[in-house]
Design a protein that fits this description.
198 residues, mainly beta, Glucose Permease (Domain IIA), 11-stranded antiparallel sheet, 3-stranded mixed sheet, 2 helices, 12% helix
C-alpha cells in the first residue's frame, strides 16, 4: 500500500496539466454539492454488499484519467465484481494474461460491457484471465456477481476500472455516475474509501 501511495503522490506532483473538458468542472461541482442532481440513475457500487474499497483514481484525475469520467477501485486479484446496474452483456473479453504500466499491454485488458435499459453502457476493465462469470447476451441484475478483478492490460496494480457512457446526438459521451454508499448517495472522490450498503 505504501508503494502505491508513493507512486500516486509522485504522479500527482509531477503532472503539470489537467483536462480542459467542461465535464470535468461539472463533476467537481457535483462532488462538492454546488450542483444538485436528483434525476440521474443511482448506481450500486460494483462490489459485494458490506465490502469497502478505496477509489485510487477518480474522475479526470491527473494520471491515466485526464480525459476520462472514470473510477479506479483498488482491489486484490480475484475480488468479486458486481453489476452496478441491470442490463444485458454486450461484450466479454477474458483471454488477456498480461498487465503492467506500459501501453503495450492495453490489448491484454480483460473487460465486460453491459448495456442498460436506457441505452447507456458500463464497462468493467482489468479483469483476471478467464475471470468473466457471464457471457455475451446474458441478462444481469443489479448487484449480481459478474467477474473477478485482476491486473490485465494497462494497469499499475490490480484494480477495477469502471466507466459509464451513452450515445448522444450520434456520438458516445462519458457519464459521471452517482452511487449508493453507506453514507448516502454520492459522486465518488479519488482516494476515499466507500462501503457498499444498500
Amino acid at each position: 500500500m505504501l508503494r502505491l501511495l508513493s507512486f500516486f503522490i509522485i504522479v500527482a506532483v509531477s503532472a503539470c496539466s489537467v483536462s480542459k473538458n467542461p465535464l470535468r468542472q461539472q463533476v467537481k461541482q457535483l462532488q462538492k454539492g454546488i450542483l444538485k442532481d436528483d434525476t440521474s440513475y443511482v448506481y450500486a457500487l460494483p462490489y459485494e454488499e458490506g465490502k469497502t474499497f478505496r477509489v485510487i483514481q477518480g474522475y479526470f484525475s491527473r494520471f491515466t484519467h485526464k480525459e476520462r469520467a472514470a473510477l479506479d477501485f483498488n482491489m486484490k486479484r480475484g475480488t468479486k465484481i458486481c453489476a452496478a446496474r441491470e442490463g444485458v452483456v454486450v461484450r466479454v473479453k477474458e483471454d488477456g494474461k498480461k498487465g503492467g504500466l506500459n501501453r503495450k499491454y492495453r490489448p491484454e485488458g480483460n473487460s465486460i460491457i453491459i448495456q442498460h435499459p436506457d441505452g447507456s453502457r458500463a464497462g468493467y476493465w482489468h479483469l483476471q484471465y478467464n475471470g468473466a462469470l457471464v457471457n455475451t447476451g446474458d441478462s444481469v441484475q443489479k448487484g449480481q456477481v459478474i467477474a473477478l478483478s485482476g491486473k490485465t492490460g494497462y494497469a499499475f496494480n490490480p484494480h477495477l476500472h469502471f466507466l459509464v457512457w451513452r450515445s448522444f446526438a450520434g456520438r458516445w459521451e462519458q457519464v459521471p455516475t452517482r452511487f449508493q454508499t453507506s453514507k448516502g448517495i454520492k459522486y465518488l472522490k479519488g482516494w476515499k474509501r466507500y462501503r457498499n450498503s444498500r
